[in-house]
Amino acid sequence: MATSTPPDVVVxxxxxxxxxxxxxxxxxxxAAHVDVxxxxxxxxxxxxxxxxxxxxxxxxxxxxxxxxxxxxxxxNVRGPFKGGLRYHPDVTESECVGLAMWMTWxxxxxxxxxxxxxxxxxxxxxxLSEAETERLTRRLAQEFRTIVGPDHDIPAPDMxxxxxxxxxxxxxxxxxxxxxxPGVVTGxxxxxxxxxxxxxxxxxxxxxITRELLDYYxxxxxxxxxxVQGFGSVGANAARALEEWGATIVAVSDVNGGIYDEDGLDVxxxxxHQEQPEAVARQAETTISNDDLLTLDVDVLIPAAIxxxxxxxxxxxxxxxxxxxxxxxxxxxxxESILDDRSIPVIPDVLANxxxxxxxxxxxxxxxxxxxxxxxxxxxxxxxxxxTAWSAVARxxxxxxxxxxxxxxxxxxxxxxxxxxxxxxxxx
Length: 428
Ligand code: GLU
Description:
This protein is of the alpha/beta class. Among the domains are: about 140 residues, 3-Layer(aba) Sandwich (Rossmann fold), CATH 3.40.50.10860; about 150 residues, Rossmann fold (3-Layer(aba) Sandwich). Helix content is about 40%, strand content about 15%. The chain has a seven-stranded mixed beta sheet. It is globular and about 55 Å long. The chain starts with 18 loop residues before the first helix and ends with a helix. The model has no long low-confidence stretch (mean pLDDT about 95). The chain binds glutamic acid (GLU). Glutamic acid binds next to β3 and α11.
């Protein structure tokens, strides 16, 4: 084989703990456990395309600021590119590529007919008024008009974006193409073609996977203590469902810090970050820092806030028996190998929080069929998709020696991706 020159679209990881660095290391590790053509693995190391746009934003005071946006499209062999769109001041091109790779694995683990993408806008959403956010989102939809579409690439909410941004994006895109096109984005409010149960879905899937995990290790949910970092839609919905199913949630936190009660919190009474931003620490007298929450002596730790919170520095101090990743990429590769040496299983994001993209798929189906599903149907179908994916990953985990749970999920995903690449072939 000729020596390859890495394509221009290759974005180098900025440092070894950044998201792309972590994503590539995870792929290399898992690749050792699958029998996949090396040429296919090589293709999967790179994004198919990365789009970079400059968005002129008129601020409310009349000034114009130019803001950078990215859309990384990693792989679409199994279906249209799919993945969130985040607004965050620290977004980078390399981060979007790493996150897009994770979306490819996530859709493949769930066996959804989608590939992987991720977009990001380098902006602090808290610094924007509602009118500015709307102008930014509509202009972004215009800039991305030729690269997104219901059969091409379908954005969704991610950090710093939600249903309202998706509604604006859908409206701007629909006006551009001259027809109502609800399937261009998912995570919309139900009144404009969003699905019931989409908002709760990533947290609900974290709860379902935690329940399956405990069952696998024969640990009763009723005797389980859980700490949840992050009380946004993922953390709060995971904590609420697990509490409802009998677990004891002893700690939750948001960006300002957390609250802890060894006898259990009344999670249902704590407002989520959406309901009352940054209010968690005001709900009880005993507060703890976000760092301390990660090293509490609990059965299950659910990091559901941001990336890279469990690192080589604090992994030796983690006292949970299990980690279930609610956020995307909360555990660095170095931290994961420390946890593995300490026999602390880490259930990966690409499985645990995949309920979000799974209900996005349900939403896309509803939009295409012009037919609404009830909340009950969404929950039942999510339950069935999650337990099916859990069983596929658990089978690999049980069959392979020295596999982590992440390796097992990657093996499932890579086998499906490789089969699709092989069937379609390389053209021309
Ligand atoms: N942003 C979510 C994720 O990281 C959802 C993506 C989607 O629904 O397309 O999984």
